[in-house]
Description:
By secondary structure, the chain is mainly alpha-helical. It has helices at 9-22, 43-54, 74-86, 89-103, 107-117, 126-154; strands spanning 34-36, 39-41, 58-62, 68-72.
Amino acid sequence: VAIGERMEPIQVQKTMFKFANEAGAPRAEIYDFEPYNWGPCSFKIYDDLEELREERLIDFEPTGRGLSQYRLTEAGKARSAVLRASAEPKILRKMDEIRAWVTSRTFNQLLRDVSDQYPGSAINSLFRLAQSATVIAALTARIDALQAASNALEE
């Protein structure tokens, strides 16, 4: 995803989470995350996005699923170019790499991959609970079918 293209809230959260854990950026430049419904979450990100919107550096656009997508405005692109020019190249490359990785995944792939990479971040994840429930239901159905087959053989 190039600068100016849209990102959904989950993509912003996971990009910043991976950046916090992988980029080697100074502590003052990263967010604190907590395990939440869809994996690691920093509510401060939403406050900062709202501030960027008030400064007209980003726009929010509805996705049609009750969420917003975020996109840099022309002023935001100009500000981003200034910040990128002064950023440490190694950290900037890592941010671009992470953003490309995050935006190349579907919603489910992204949640699964991040929780696989950082299991502690998924302890409260509704996604993990849903996956577990699906597996348990499938195993229970298989056990029931095997039990029924066993009972039929005994008759």
